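Protein Entry — a single chain follows
Next Lines — sequence and tokenised fold
***
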Amino acid sequence: MKILLVEDEKKLAQFIGRRLKDENFAVEIVHDGMSATEAALSKPFDLVILDILLPGKDGFQVVSEIRRAKPHLPVLMLTAKDKVDDKIRGLGLGADDYLTKPFEFGELLARIQSLMRRSGAVTQTVLRVGDLELDTVNRRATRGSKVVELSTREFMLLEFLMRNKDRILTRKTIAQRIWGYTFESGTNIVDVYVSYLRKEIDEPFEKKLIRTVHGAGYMLKEV
């Protein structure tokens, strides 16, 4: 799952981003309203965590623009503005939830998970394609009776491929979702990590699951 975190307090943003990454979320951080709107409207995110008091453009403006362009993208407002009128305004403009600072990270995580369930972004915790199984809660991958050891990025990539099985995923889409940046020609990080995955989940087995679609990208498909 990929989250856009919009927070102008850089130390707080780094803390939240680090804790979310520890929970296996991919996180992109921006610090002002203009960058928030640009990122939210041009890149694929599963959730936006949005401060209100931002330079350039405040969170109320940002959530309004997000809601017009992407009506189903969940937005969680995380702000020091704790007056009832502010909450009413934020929710009225289209925020799905509103959490005030200071906050406990556990509550933030619980609200994120609730929004993910409500939006349908999290539909399964155990994914299966053929004899490949991925337990996203316990971070365990197996193929047949073999436990597959994966790095954090490999795990994220495999989960993304499995949640989109039988679909062609372009290198650009994969790079945006897993690494949080726009794919540039000459960058081979996607190909490198796909090769890492193949060594773990395909090479030891007769049936291959990861397909290269020449000129397009990659696809995970059961034989």
Remarks:
- The longest strand covers residues 2-6.
- Residues 20 and 137 are 14 Å apart (CA to CA).
- The two ends are 26 Å apart (CA to CA).
- Helices lie at 10-22, 33-42, 59-69, 84-93, 105-119, 152-163, 171-179, 189-201.
